Amino acid sequence: MPLRRLIQVITGAVASALVLSGCNASGGAAPVVVGETNRGGSVTVAEVNAFTSFNPFSVAGNTDINTKIGHITHSGFYYVDDTVKVVRNEKFGRYEKVSDKPLKVRYTVNEGVKWSDGDAIDAGDLLLSWAAGSGYFDDADSEAGTGTTYFSAAADKTGLAGTVFPEIGSDGRSITLEYATPYADWEVAFDVGLPAHVVAAKSGLNDEADLIDLLKESPGGDTTEPAVNAPLKRVSDFWNSGFDAKSLPDDPAIYLSSGPYLVRDIVADTSLRLVRNRDYVWGPEPFLDEITVRFTGAAPAAVAALRNGQADIIAPQPTAGNESLFQGLKDQGNTVQQYSQAGYDHLDLKFSGPFADRDVRQAFLKTVPRQEVVDAIAGSASDAKPLDSHVFLPSHPKYPDTVKNNGSAGYSEVDIQGARSQLRGATPTIRILYNRDNPSRVRAFSLIRDSARLAGFTVEDAGLGNSDWAAALGSGNYDAAILGWISTGVGVGRVPQIFKTGGGSNFNGFSDDDADKVMEQLASTTDLAKQDELMAAIDKRVWESAYGLPLYQTAGTVAFSSRVSGVKPSPGPLGVWWNVSEWRLK
């Protein structure tokens, strides 16, 4: 996945349950032998989510399935492997630090690297990626309600926001970023995103050169003198939503590839078909000719698909009570691997409407039956314990000490009487957004609703379907949301991405001056121990604000048939897809 500054990805967008029929995973082109290695053939993968966008870097498109498809249809300067190690892809290009004071990093794309329409990946693509991820042109003042935020990137803009306008190389394939202040995550702060020549054409410009000129000539944003830049607004509007699609667009320009696979067909909410990009030589070349992704919803449907030969690889969400399903797959000769993801489910409260009052937020959180939610959904997958930190997972060495001091103990037990007292007779109405097509989210909502009612809250169902709920995040149509995050585990930008004022994934309007200052320190700190201290301080501020509640660390499960090899899960948002080029038929 390019633009790997998007280190937190929304999870839990589960498609409606699907009974697969007429799809024999053993079909497709037969493998051919090249030396001693099988090349060719096809596999079917069952995933829980429905595809919604060819732009996984935007706020609306930043879901796990969009990220996975984005990863195998795009290339970049590096990727993160299953050991959470950053691996540079020097077949694509190179990046190098050219100066420490000031910090300067030069990115160069190799000659011959191109989009699937034949257009070269070049400095224009890099410049557009920088514009989208830096917020350089924004002049929005959230407190005053003035100005414009142009590109709705889901990233933390802390790092790239501290860069001056890039220097474009004379070769036309490179740019140099200069940071005004040191940035801890510089090595994973930037990569290639969407095709600049397509964005230029679709936003009314003549060509990519016009787009480069527009970016060069546009002034940086000034919140004291906001002014709408109409041509830039057309560019950013298309970047924000022009690549969204639930079915295959009529215009192939919307789904260009620079990676090992090309999208060939999409059946909305049902399936997506990919074929090998035979021009691709600037990264690990894949073995398989074709991959079909089917959106199967809940775990039983995915398990049935693998058992019946209608899928070769499945990655369902394990839930309490489904353990016997996976044991049955093992007994049938399939491989089943369970692992801890770098992610967690959580309940977030918006800092507006009834929850603008901190007492109301605290009262609601006192009603949340976290242990019941864990028992009902996660079961043994997460050791049946609620998560007690917003920034650390239990495996982190800093987790135990942080939990002792962050204030999470105040919500360790349900306290209906305490909630009633804090409401002082009020009966607020709370609308909760979640994914109605995800059985785990439905169960969590039901448990939270029933408990909150005991304290006097009226809880309304604001859930939406699989294809729509994530895009509603940040809107004014709900008061609380149940969702999940999963991180690459690289760098610290995941924290300001969610919690910093105006952060790319700050959907609930949380804003804390003290926390912002600590996050600014965090962005420039390279000492790991100091980073941990700063994150612990942020965690405490988040708990003190009654922001919401982490529920539990999510677990991952992958199962695959004996006809497939090379499948290895990673704890990050890509799951098994991080090494798709190594998948092959035995």
Description of the structure:
There is one protein chain. This protein is an alpha+beta fold. 26% of the residues lie in helices and 19% in strands. The protein contains 15 helices and 21 strands. It has helices at residues 64-73, 123-134, 196-202, 208-217, 230-241, 299-307, 323-331, 358-366, 370-378, 399-405, 416-423, 439-453, 494-499, 513-523, 528-544; strands at residues 8-11, 32-34, 37-39, 42-47, 78-80, 86-88, 93-100, 103-109, 167-168, 174-178, 261-267, 271-276, 290-295, 313-314, 335-349, 429-433, 458-461, 480-487, 548-560, 564-565, 584-585. Strands 1, 4, 11, 12, 13, 14, 15, 16, 17, 18 and 19 form an eleven-stranded mixed β-sheet that branches. A four-stranded antiparallel β-sheet has the order 7-8-10-9, with helices on one face. Strand 2 (32-34) and strand 3 form a beta hairpin. Helix 2 (123-134) packs across helix 4 and helix 8 (358-366) runs antiparallel to helix 11. Mean pLDDT is 90; it is low at 1-7 and 12-36.
Features:
alpha+beta, 19% strand, globular
What are the low-pLDDT stretches, counting only 5+ consecutive residues below 50?
A: 1-7, 12-36
Backbone structural class: alpha+beta
**Mean of residue pLDDT?**
90
Looking at how many chains there are and whether they match, the oligomeric state comes to single chain
Count of DSSP H/I helices: 15
Shape: globular
The beta-strand count equals 21
Approximately what portion of the residues adopt beta-strand conformation?
Answer: 15-25%
How would a crystallographer describe the biggest sheet? 11 strands, mixed
Query: End-to-end span in angstroms?
Result: 27 Å
Helix content: 25-40%
Global Rg: 23 Å
